[in-house]
Amino acid sequence: MADKETPERASIVADPAQSVQIGTVEFSAQRDQIAPAMFAVQKVVKSIPYDSTAVVQHKGGGSHSFRYTSLRGMLDALLPVMHKNGLFLVGGGGGDKAVGVTTCAMHAASGQWAQTTVPFITSGEAMAVGSVVSYGRRYGIPALFGISCEEDDGGMAAQRSMEPEQGAFTNDMLLALGDDHKTAVKLLGWTAGKIKAALAKFVDDTGTLDYKTSLAFLNRELDKQNSEAKR
């Protein structure tokens, strides 16, 4: 939203006439209304529980599952608190093979804003673009407010008590990585061995690949790589 060649990546005490970027989140030049409103939301919504399960079939047989928070579940938990504090959510994405998905929290009374953009590379097909826009919104919303999506302790304990203990990251899991993971590792330029070594830590005792945590890790690595390339 701000027209400048190099976004500031310093602190919130930067030049008040300029927008300021902290990590992947950019704030409007004026922040006296948006900052306390977002703080009020974060005090109430510290995390959003998983509400959905996906099952991935392995090419070599078998399957693994992962829990995640759907976009609807995320909005149901967050929007009422945002609206109570004078904020509304806008965003979307565009492009074909290079898609940037922007999520923006707008303060209704002042017009001040905070936004984050998640970049993706897709095949350019309509379904692929639609998929990354949906995922980008799910990834951008918690990043914008600094909150997490996680399984509740009781649900996690119950799930683990019903499943046998297994091994670590397998070749089948590597083959079954979702499009989001594949996009990230393609951009990183990692080999299969590097991917397995990096993602092994995200496989729990049940042999399940933690989809959200591992993908967040890959995106952090991508941000780090992009930052180093700009130096």
What layout of secondary structure does this protein have?
Blueprint: E1 20-22, E2 25-27, H1 34-44, E3 47-49, E4 52-57, E5 63-68, H2 71-84, E6 87-94, E7 98-107, E8 113-121, H3 126-145, E9 148-150, H4 153-162, H5 171-175, H6 179-188, H7 192-199, H8 211-230
Parallel strand pairs: 3-9
Antiparallel strand pairs: 1-2, 2-8, 4-5, 6-7, 7-8
Helix pairs in contact: 6-8
Give a description of the structure.
Residues 1-15 and 152-168 have low confidence and may be disordered. The chain has a 5-stranded antiparallel beta sheet with strand order 1-2-8-7-6. Strands 3-9 form a two-stranded parallel ribbon. 42% of the residues lie in helices and 22% in strands. With 231 residues, the protein is of the alpha+beta class. The two termini are 23 Å apart. The chain contains 8 helices and 9 strands. It has helices at 34-44, 71-84, 126-145, 153-162, 171-175, 179-188, 192-199, 211-230; strands at residues 20-22, 25-27, 47-49, 52-57, 63-68, 87-94, 98-107, 113-121, 148-150. The chain has a domain at 20-163.
Order of helices and strands: EEHEEEHEEEHEHHHHH
Radius of gyration: 19 Å
Lateral strand order in the biggest sheet: 1-2-8-7-6
The parts where pLDDT drops under 50 for at least 5 residues are 1-15, 152-168
Percentage beta strand? 15-25%
Summarize the amount of helix as a percent range.
Answer: 40-55%
Keywords:
231 residues, five-stranded antiparallel β-sheet, two-stranded parallel sheet, globular, disordered N terminus
